[in-house]
């Protein structure tokens, strides 16, 4: 069997290692440059590779192709593979059959990283032999090759779900759905929604789907479509006989006739959206039969995720918060919604077709100044120019943070929550967040 791997990053190299171990003839091809540390791994494992090109004669003879999630289906080489009828799958689809471990798959437009990390924290704290992978951390395929975990918590993007055929998680979570990455879905929101729901397409009556019952896109899909999985909803406003909800400042989760309760003020993560993440993770913990005391302790000591509403420093009684992971409007909505003091908002980057109207009420109520950090800020200026007193443009993070410091007063908050992708001025959202933190520490 010949496996060709497109993309020589974490998921590509991990897949190549697993395939080689299972006796495949493996070839890795990357149209960009493969990083030196990954090249070293490929060479040490005796895996053939090329970069800065795709040699068709070495690719179109594949029996199966694993495509890294960052490569769009519109890429010429992918189109040719599909025309030839060669299966193009994701790392998750390739690796899953080689492990007996159960997987917990987590997807959603926002909150999936926090929910994944929190779920992993709950299971690990309970002493389960659990791995973390998917869109985060070490390659799932490489961990399967090492074969040391009984269960995995996987963060799954819509791109990874597009490449599954038979994969099913035992427990699936959809945190929420809002328009994102529409450039990859022919600008059709329903295509993106369908893509997220692929997480449940192979589930059976023995499996579970945990979902946000307050989310319109999720509820709409579930009304029109069927899944065989057992449904476990969570909500901030409704209550359930089975599911998780908030009532009188208490989080309740009722699963398999067993009830769990915890005061919301004891939960380490702040903000309503984080209560949702906590309900989703708690539902998994209950399904995995983890003790109530362990769940309580884990929810109260969880540290949160870097670049997601991360408190950086307080300088002269001004709080600086790094929310660089907010790459769409919906994520920034949660961030602004959780602000309790006058806010200087740093926003901008590569716009993915954003509609800023959703933020209008929050900006009027909470934002005293907007600092635009992007190559093209026209849309942001048009949207909020008449709404805030101060509107500034900068083209690097150091200036953004210095400007913010100049216009803040005691008791204010400076929030980096870009609502956009980062590729115009930064390598990625992590780079953007790190530069913000560095600039704040240098004030």
UniProtKB/TrEMBL annotation:
GO terms for biological process: cell division; cell wall organization; peptidoglycan biosynthetic process; regulation of cell shape. GO terms for cellular component: cytoplasm. Pathway: Cell wall biogenesis; peptidoglycan biosynthesis. ATP binds at residues 108-114. InterPro entries: Mur-like_cat_sf, Mur_ligase_C, Mur_ligase_C_dom_sf, Mur_ligase_cen, MurD. It is found in: Cytoplasm. NCBIfam families: murD. Cell wall formation. Catalyzes the addition of glutamate to the nucleotide precursor UDP-N-acetylmuramoyl-L-alanine (UMA). This is UDP-N-acetylmuramoylalanine--D-glutamate ligase. It comes from Flavobacterium seoulense. The gene is murD.
């Amino acid at each position: 069997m010949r496996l060709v791997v497109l993309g020589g990053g974490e998921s590509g190299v991990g897949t190549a290692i697993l395939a080689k171990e299972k006796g495949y003839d493996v070839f890795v091809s990357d149209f960009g440059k493969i990083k030196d540390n990954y090249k070293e791994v490929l060479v040490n494992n005796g895996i053939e590779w090329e970069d800065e090109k795709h040699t068709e004669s070495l690719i179109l003879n594949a029996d199966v192709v694993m495509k890294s999630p960052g490569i769009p289906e519109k890429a010429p080489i992918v189109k040719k593979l599909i025309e030839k009828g060669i299966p193009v799958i994701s790392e998750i689809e390739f690796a899953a059959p080689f492990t007996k471990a159960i997987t917990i798959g987590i997807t959603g437009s926002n909150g999936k990283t926090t929910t994944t990390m929190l779920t992993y924290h709950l299971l690990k704290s309970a002493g389960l032999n659990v791995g973390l992978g998917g869109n985060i951390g070490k390659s799932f395929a490489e961990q399967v090759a090492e074969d040391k975990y009984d269960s995995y918590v996987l963060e799954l993007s819509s791109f990874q779900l597009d490449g599954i055929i038979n994969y099913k998680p035992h427990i699936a979570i959809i945190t929420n759905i809002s328009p994102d990455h529409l450039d990859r879905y022919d600008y059709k929101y329903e295509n993106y929604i369908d893509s997220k729901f692929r997480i449940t397409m192979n589930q059976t009556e023995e499996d579970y789907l945990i979902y946000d019952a307050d989310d319109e896109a999720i509820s709409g899909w579930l009304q029109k479509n069927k899944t065989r999985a057992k449904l476990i909803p969570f909500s901030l406003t409704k209550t359930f006989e089975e599911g998780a909800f908030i009532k009188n400042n208490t989080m309740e989760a009722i699963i398999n006739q067993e009830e769990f309760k915890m005061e919301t003020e004891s939960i380490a993560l702040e903000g309503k959206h984080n209560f949702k993440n906590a309900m989703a993770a708690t539902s998994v913990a209950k399904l995995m039969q983890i003790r109530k005391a362990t769940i309580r302790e884990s929810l109260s000591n969880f540290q949160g995720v870097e670049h997601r509403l991360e408190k950086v420093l307080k300088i002269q009684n001004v709080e600086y918060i790094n929310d660089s992971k907010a790459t769409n409007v919906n994520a920034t909505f949660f961030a602004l919604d959780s602000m309790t003091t006058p806010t200087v908002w740093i926003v901008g980057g590569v716009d993915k077709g954003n509609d800023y109207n959703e933020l209008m009420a929050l900006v009027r109520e909470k934002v005293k100044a907007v600092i635009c950090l992007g190559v093209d800020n026209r849309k942001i200026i048009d949207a909020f120019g008449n709404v805030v007193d101060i509107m500034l443009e900068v083209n690097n993070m150091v200036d953004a943070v210095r400007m913010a410091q100049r216009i803040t007063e005691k008791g204010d908050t400076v929030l980096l929550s870009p609502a956009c992708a980062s590729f115009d001025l930064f390598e990625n959202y992590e780079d953007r967040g790190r530069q913000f933190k560095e600039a704040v520490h240098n004030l």
